[in-house]
């Protein structure tokens, strides 16, 4: 009897798991993709459990093998830096765009009708499904395990997405599930009223006026780093090779900690180092496949759970300390106060606990505020080191504006060349590689109905390096293209999106720009620099696009400017 019960329980469990896996990995994806396929959207055929992951791996491996063969046949020249890194990091996108996002779809119906008339073709051909569905543009679909993506580089579709204010468009659920330990139920991953509440609390803390008042704090932190560089370089004529990645990370961490977490900033360093390890562990492998589930006790997941627990309790300790100290009016205080009122707001319809609300949002700000800005600063300095003419131009501007003074908010606003350099850096090396959205209900863009549950992905680096939009020098560093602002830099303003698009655009972009200008202007005014011969250019994607090898600069003092702070 007991044996029978065990057997039927095991069998029942097995059948239930099979039915679950079959629904998640086959029935649901089929339902989504067949609706898109009927509308002319194509894509590579997925395998059952892994989707297109095997093909992604195969294409990446093939491109990397070809690349290393080409490299070994050439004499290595570290100064020959190729900015077309998306072709090697995301080669599958380029291949799929060529294969599945056919050129005919670029045409509007009018153009097709005209070309048909010109070619003497009968117009009834227009009802052929491959031609009539011209709305898609360069879009295709693919999947990683259970996660279905509609990937688009179609500027018109990007424009419609960025103008969309409908609550039917939101952030994908995999951000709070698969990326949960990092992003949790924070402003980054929530939707609807709870997101609206979080945005209302956090965004005003980074409005331009608030940021202006944080410039002196940014200058103080950067000055401390500059002094340490000066002592490493020694007196005039001295020189040092400095690994700037580490310094940019600790500087950025210092700035965001002090700006957002006030007197409790000292705990920040530990939290950042753990967050970085967490990000590293989480970037291994793909999300959405069986075995990567956050509930399965794999070695990776044990490490993630341990780090998550440690980070969460460290943040809660900071919160407790804050409760015991004097009142401060910083972001942490705003989050704490809003968490109290959030507890009373049943209308938000959320089941997130107050502790979770605090921890997830603090964690998200720590992560967003430090990693992206630090990496951008490293890329800016690397590019200025390899483009001495732009380094000299930016330095002349900084010295002219600041004279013998430390930069303030007005001076930063007038730094046109420095701004152009930062904008061009974020065009070539956007730290965030994808704008991600999800159809929370059926939603229509460019005559294509995107079914509920489908994720939408815009690969930022590919759009920002498209020669069709940016011209033949799309893969080159040319800050001049931003001389008349972002709107005039390319044939389509929507093609520039390092801070994302639409309602979910980066809440900290003014803060990030001010911080980058402070860092660059202070470094330029004190030092000249070139790339260390040890540098090897190798961008990598680990949730963010970062230098795969350390950026080491050969740094000297600027001799004509001897003022010390
Ligand atoms: C160079 C630096 C930075 C870059 C390139 C960057 C980029 C981005 C991108 C691409 C998004 C997603 C936008 C979208 O989905 O359309 C985002 C969101 C966000 N960023 Fe940034 N970011 C930077 C710095 C910062 C800083 C310094 C902060 C705050 C201290 C910050 C706070 C946020 C927040 C809160 C969101 C979520 C907005 C929402 O969903 O409502 N970011 N950022």
UniProtKB/TrEMBL annotation:
Transmembrane segments: none annotated. The keyword ATP-binding does not apply. Gene3D superfamilies: Cytochrome P450 (1.10.630.10). Heme binds at residue 506. Pfam families: p450. One of its GO terms (cellular component) is membrane. Its main location: membrane. It is a single-pass membrane protein. Belongs to the cytochrome P450 family. This is Cytochrome P450.
